[in-house]
Design a protein that fits this description.
Chain lengths: 88, 903
């Protein structure tokens, strides 16, 4: 599960449809999440890209130190609306 | 040679074509009415048809995080703050071409688990879920594409996707978060907490056995604690969310520190109003996030038209996040968002829009008059609305979402009925709603006509035209019958005739109380309806009537599970009266145990998982300062007892009466022996089919042929036969009265609810053969008034006579499904015949009828090649569903229903 390669759902231009696919906002074409990303890939905010995400385990469960509650977080959680997101 | 029941019956000269009124032509006959939606809607609908049911962890994560942080806070505040946090963090997605935006999650057909309701399923499946997620490798594009087409159910894990409950797909990256989150709720969820206290019910052990033997289908308190009710859109439509926050602030100033004469919960008003503010702020943020997203998309958009539409969306979302909507489009968008917000607050199926066409009429009327919109543009918006509503998924366990709901969400939109003053309530907008049901055929919202003699012919024939699409909607409900039931059930809570006229259908066909509200738009006053009751179809659900009779015959012992489910009655059942009395005694025991346990579940739910947003939308929670769980709502006597398999139980009693007690042709032991040996047939599971005619004989076992033949030929319900109908009437009179002897947690009497939804499949599967000749594991008759397939041999009017031999206004509902060949309703003449048929049933006092206007051969073909029938819709029992998304048990049952060749 702790894969580091980028997938389409890691891209800001990706419009998700379901767990397998979405639409590329640049081409308006349907694309499968788990296929190779293109050179125009633009990283979307997710915990795994955030400097407040600490000590992830092999399942990408780590700690969030952005808030005061010392709560857990998971790498693939979207951070687009997170008040404490800070890109690494 | 394998001998099927159909062959055996044919040898006996019994018609096995399951057709009445002629013979269907050999070639397949298509449905008569076919239209297409607007191009943009077609595209969005096609996208839906290729979308997988997708679950994610974003909402549960943010909810749980805030909830855990606020340990020790006042329960209402803790819950509201958690909801605010979750709503504020839903990542907005806007799909190209949409005019209406928003969704439960960032997926097109998204949903999410609520471990605060119940986490046990995920804990039980922890290893399996992890294993799936860990073992998957990188998948090929071809493999993934394969799963991207066809029905949206993710029945198996694939690639980086794990299947949950055979229905929802979740990304493997989310699975560890699901497990981690679920673990936090162990011992704290409504399920776990209520279990602790349910065990203090002296008969709890019986409850467990009832669930294992599938005498009862599911617990409602932690699976679907709300729903099967009618939503109320009025308050946000009148005041806007900003206005509601102002009202809550004023109320806080009034009630802070004041008991208001109520020494028990008077002080709680302060917390409720503060909770209202928190939740509304979260919902405002959620809506504004869509406005921001629309602006972001517009910035990078090269297509001028699409860019303009994104900017319009941004403006609309900004406005309605605070204010009363100005236009029809804004009002429709707001009602949709209210709907989704309600569904995100709790696990819900059957949150019905109610009489939406009457609620939105003020905006429609003023926009049309001012030339701000055309009817064609309204139609396009209504088509968009249908697609958005069809995208709604309800996350629940396999047994609930599959076994009970068939994956449906029951967003039932009611049409017609009467106004507060008793005039026809249908309007031009409702005609367009019907038209959108024709042009954009999809499962939601399903439609129901509240049939009243006063409704104009033009409106009724439009509804019939919609029926002829073959989608199964609209269903027809008896308006006067519904009003009588509502007056009777809610009279003690102040229901008047005027207010009873505001009722609408929640869920499948749950008659639900409503209220009238004065709405002002640009200085003009209107009276609009809305839901005013607690959830229905909560309480005791579903009881398999044939299974209870089986337990009577076998002294409380379930041969399938090998358990003594009910205490032995040790009676010899020497007379028919003793048999029936024992059935009633067992049934009452079952209801008593289930009622007590469910009351505890719902009590825990209201204490720790109370509804805030949904409460503030319904009268009189805002006025009283109390949420639904504290009876802030106007009508509270909504809990009920839901039965299933009535007709098989009745037919079985009739057969026993005739063959054992009246004619004495067989002893009860002979019948029991035949039942235990399935009349010499294989089980349905072995055969792989769940309809009666397809069942196969065990080779060389002929011992039970005669007794089986006699059981099959015994009088059957649905033929205007007084012998059979007397048994039904006796049962219904007792059942409807008996339910009122039990009390919900709100200290109100229960009542009868008689719909099967999909439970006639799994409950049939758990039931041995029955004395009516039905074989082990086969599906019960659907609904409660539908005849068992092939047994209604005297035509629809005879069926109607049987169905109305009892007073249907004593029950929340009854359910009658008819399958009609398209040739029988062809042209205007066919339409009028179908309307007359409907009228005939309503005039006799029938509460509900719905039609599958389809050639059975189409269904058989679709079962063989489902990939070619992705868009095929059928009516099951109170809902319309995509054929490919319903289970085989129910598919077999729909195919087997008697097909009327003439009406």
């Amino acid at each position: 599960m702790a894969k580091t390669a980028f997938k389409h759902s890691d891209c800001r231009n990706f419009i998700p449809i379901d767990v397998a696919k979405g639409i590329c906002g640049l081409t308006n074409q349907n694309i499968l999440i788990d296929t190779q990303v293109c050179p125009k890939f633009k990283e979307v905010a997710k915990c795994k890209n955030c400097s407040n995400f600490k000590d992830p385990d092999e399942k990408m469960i780590g700690r969030c130190v952005g808030f005061n509650d010392d709560y857990w977080a998971y790498g693939d959680l979207k951070g687009v609306l997170c008040e404490k997101y800070q890109a690494k | 040679m394998v001998k099927k029941l159909a062959d055996i019956l044919e040898e006996k000269g019994i018609n096995v074509s399951f057709q009445y009124g002629g013979k269907a032509p050999d070639e397949i006959v298509d449905r008569e009415i076919k239209k297409e939606p607007h191009p943009r809607v077609k595209k969005l609908k096609d996208q839906y048809l290729n979308t997988l049911s997708s679950a994610s962890m974003e909402f549960p994560y943010w909810y749980s995080r805030k909830f855990m942080e606020l340990d020790g806070e006042v329960p209402e505040i803790r819950r509201a703050a958690a909801l605010k946090h979750a709503f504020s963090h839903i990542t907005p997605t806007i799909w190209p071409g949409e005019l209406l935006v928003g969704g439960k999650t960032y997926h097109y057909r998204g949903s999410f688990p609520m471990p605060w309701e119940s986490e046990g399923y995920f804990m039980a499946k922890e290893d399996e879920l992890y294993q799936n997620a860990l073992e998957s490798g990188s998948a090929s594009a071809g493999e993934l594409s394969k799963f991207g087409s066809g029905g949206g159910n993710v029945t198996e894990s694939f690639g980086e996707v794990t299947s949950i409950a055979g229905k929802f797909g979740m990304r493997n990256e989310d699975i560890p978060a699901l497990i981690k989150c679920a673990r936090e709720w162990v011992g704290k969820s409504v399920d776990d907490r209520s279990l602790k206290y349910q065990k203090m019910v002296p008969e709890y052990d019986i409850k467990e056995k009832l669930m294992r033997s599938v005498v009862c289908m599911f617990d409602s308190g932690f699976t679907l604690p709300l729903g099967r009710e009618v939503i109320n859109y009025y308050y946000p439509l009148q005041y806007g969310f900003g206005g509601l926050i102002d009202i809550a602030r004023e109320k806080i100033a009034e009630v802070a520190g004041e008991a208001g004469g109520d020494g028990i919960i008077g002080m709680d008003r302060l917390y409720f109003y503060q909770a209202v503010i928190l939740v509304l702020e979260g919902i405002q943020t959620w809506i504004r996030n869509y406005a921001d997203e629309a602006r972001r998309l517009a910035e990078g958009c090269q297509d001028a038209q699409q860019k303009k539409e994104y900017l319009e969306i941004a403006e609309i979302m900004d406005w309605i996040s605070t204010n009363q909507p100005r236009t029809f489009r804004e009002a429709l968008q707001l009602t949709y968002l209210i709907h989704i917000a309600t569904l995100n607050e709790d696990a819900i199926s059957g949150m019905s829009p109610g009489r939406l066409g009457q609620v939105l009429y003020p905006w429609f009327e003023q926009d049309i008059e001012a030339g701000r919109i055309t009817e064609d543009e309204v139609l396009e918006l209504l088509e968009c609305h249908r697609t958005k509503m069809t995208c709604i998924d309800c996350f629940a366990s396999t047994g609930v979402v599959g076994g009970v709901l068939s994956g449906n969400t029951f967003n039932n939109l009611s049409l017609g009925g009467l106004t507060k003053d008793g005039e026809p309530a249908c309007n031009r907008l409702e005609m367009l709603i019907l038209e959108s049901g024709i042009t954009n055929q999809c499962s939601q919202p399903t439609l129901s006509v509240l049939y009243d003699e006063k409704l104009p012919e033009e409106f009724l024939l439009k509804a019939i035209e919609c029926n002829k699409t073959g989608t199964g909607y609209p269903a027809w409900m008896n308006n006067q019958g519904g009003i009588q039931f509502i007056l009777q059930q809610y009279g003690a809570e102040g229901m008047t005739l005027e207010e009873a006229r505001a009722f609408a259908i929640g869920g499948c066909l749950e008659t639900s109380p409503g209220s009238w509200h004065e709405l002002t738009l640009n200085g003009k006053k209107y009276t609009v309806p809305g839901g005013a009751g607690q959830p229905t179809s909560v309480g005791v659900h579903f009881i398999g009537n044939p299974k209870v009779l089986e337990l009577v015959l076998f002294n409380g012992y379930d041969h399938r599970t090998g358990e003594q489910v009910l205490p032995p009655h040790n009676k010899k059942l020497e007379t028919y009266e003793e048999l029936v009395d024992t059935f009633k005694e067992y049934y009452e025991l079952v209801v008593d145990v289930l009622c007590k346990c469910n009351n505890i579940q719902h009590d825990i739910w209201r204490k720790q998982n109370m509804s805030i947003f949904h409460s503030l939308c319904k009268p009189d929670c805002l006025a009283k300062g109390h949420h639904i769980g504290d009876m802030g709502i106007r009508y509270n006597a909504t809990y009920n007892v839901e039965s299933c398999g009535t007709i098989n139980q009745i037919n079985s009693l009739v057969a026993l009466k005739k063959l054992v007690y009246d004619e004495k042709k067989y002893s009860l032991e002979d019948i029991k022996d035949a039942i235990l040996n399935n009349f010499g047939f294989k089980t349905a599971e072995e055969v792989g089919s769940y309809s009666l005619a397809s069942q196969e004989k065990v080779e060389g076992v002929d011992k039970y042929d005669q007794i089986h033949s006699d059981c099959l030929m015994a009088p059957k319900y649905g033929n205007d036969d007084p012998y059979a109908d007397a048994v039904l009437k006796d049962y219904e009179d007792w059942f409807c009265a008996m339910c009122r002897d039990f009390e919900s947690l709100y200290a109100k009497p229960l009542y009868a609810c008689q719909i099967s939804v999909s439970t006639h499949g799994p409950q049939g599967a758990a039931t041995l053969a029955s004395a009516d000749g039905r074989l082990a594991g086969t599906t019960y008759a659907d609904g409660s008034m539908s005849a068992y397939p092939g047994t209604d041999r005297e035509g629809p009017y005879a069926l109607f006579s049987s169905a109305t031999c009892w007073d249907q206004t004593q029950s929340q509902n009854s359910q009658m499904n008819l399958k009609v060949h398209p040739n029988a309703t062809k042209g205007m003449e066919g339409s009028k015949k179908l309307l007359e048929l409907t009228r005939a049933y309503m005039r006799r006092g029938g509460f509900h009828i719905q039609y599958n206007i389809v050639d059975s051969k189409v269904l058989k073909e679709a079962q063989k090649a489902p990939e070619e029938y992705r868009e095929l819709l059928v009516r099951v029992a109170g809902f319309t569903q995509y054929w490919v998304e319903i289970g085989k048990q129910i598919q077999d049952e729909v195919i087997a229903r008697t097909e009327y060749e003439a009406v």
